[in-house]
Write a structure and sequence with these properties.
The structure is a single chain. The chain has 151 residues and is mainly β. Helix content is 9%, strand content 36%. The protein has a five-stranded mixed sheet, with no helix packed on it. The radius of gyration is 17 Å and the shape is elongated.
Length: 151
């Protein structure tokens, strides 16, 4: 049976592929509207401004494993610190699930995937890697994707 070695090799290559898309920066200086990826501790700075965004943490990862059938997609909380160069960094939380859990308090802004920062909008685009049943994602493996847009 030749299909198994080929499938195994293809799966191994996918597992080793980076979490960010080709030509997508990981931290550093980014342009407006450019999608970028941050690992925990990485910082992206918006070109021509003092605005800096640092990925601080990923908390409460209850996302539905990709190899399971779930009644709810789950959620993870992505914590970033944003500073404009003039004030102390402020923490912002983003969620993988745009809809709050029924028990969660209502969000006053209504958008759990975006935050207004110093005349810009920081939009959360996604979190990798996906969860698998029975496995825990190591903190150092998380990669969060964002884009900064003029508000």
């Amino acid at each position: 049976m030749r299909a198994r070695p080929v499938l195994f090799a293809a799966g191994a290559l996918l597992a080793l592929a980076p979490a960010c898309a080709p030509h997508e920066p990981r931290g550093g200086t980014v342009r407006p509207r450019q999608v970028f990826t941050l690992a925990i501790g990485d910082t992206a700075r918006l070109q021509g401004t003092g605005l800096a965004v640092t990925l601080r943490d990923v908390r409460d990862d209850s996302r539905c494993p990709v190899d399971a059938d779930c009644g709810w997609p789950g959620d993870a909380t992505i914590v970033v610190a944003a500073a404009d160069g003039h004030t102390a960094p402020a923490e912002h939380e983003f969620h993988t699930n745009p809809l709050p859990a029924r028990s969660a308090p209502p969000d006053p802004d209504g958008d759990r995937r975006a935050a207004r920062l110093d005349g810009h909008m920081l939009r959360f685009k996604g979190l990798a890697p996906s969860r698998r049943s029975g496995d825990r994602v190591d903190r150092g493996d998380y990669r969060a994707r964002f884009a900064l847009h003029p508000a």
